[in-house]
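User: For my dataset I need records formatted as: sequence, then structure tokens, nothing else. Please produce one.
Assistant:
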Amino acid sequence: MSYSVLELCAGGGGQALGLEMAGFHHAAAVEYEAQFCTTLRMNRPHWDVRQQDIRDLRRADFTGVDLLAAGVPCPPFSIAGKQLGKDDDRDMFPAVMEIIREAKPRGVLFENVPGLATEKFSDYRSNLLKELSRLGYQPEWRVLHSSHFGVPQLRPRFVLIALRPRDAECFRWPTPRIKVVNVGEALIDLMAENGWDGAEAWAERAVGVGPTIVGGSKKHGGPDLGPTRAKQKWRELGVDGMGIADEAPDVSFPQEGMPRLTVRMAARIQSFPDTWSFSGRKTIAYRQVGNAFPPNVAKVVGLSILSAFNRQSRYTAAVEQFDPEPRLCEKRGAISRLKKARKSSRS
């Protein structure tokens, strides 16, 4: 059986894609920014993508949808956004709650920054949980670490699930996977695609998980890898976090050099498949990538919700190995063959 989802504040499509991967079909994907809507339509022409403010949405159009999923803007709860909470005009939770009251979905999924889980927002969180309970749901929340689910970055996220009582009895949070994917193995083929001789050695050094990628907003942030502390962590992984590159390093790049990530590399770090394209120039494309809920995490959360809908008592997350084609051993073999070919041509 296929279940429907109404996606609010869809952004560049990370959560929407992950829920599709889990098995949901989209009743609609609603997003305010035109460039983000272009991305959604470009990748999924069959989706009903609506460019509008969610406060203007015709709620009656979605009465009885199975799941309402919303990645509401995070600046009201993030340090970079000043953590103004309900006093921030970008706080969209009240608008989403109005839609929930009228559409009466079977379940609700909220995703946001971990700041929403802190003591500073305990009252805000408590009021949100009370209102969901008053509407007949059993809400619960956790902070999930993306690196536990096949994503090569830390990226902790606040995730709230609210289900009807019978479904809530069967809901279980996804279980973290055992193997952690590191930055080097995730990106080695992209680092080598323009012939950089240092790609393999770089990947062998980049054996850690990356810090959280930060996409910035219209008001703040450009195409770089975040605040000073994050840039230092990227430096320890052999990545120059001061900007985003247009292309992967080529044959002229120093073997011991410190490359920058491209938008495509950042998308890999977020667990987007290479087939998912981002519209717009570098800055806005990177903003779509950097602000996304990683598809791999959205998928395992979606599978847990589906299991509850299907009255299955337990679901253990089984995310596929994050191993973009070609496989890692094939990538390294191809790089070795490339090196041998170059040596032969020079001799």
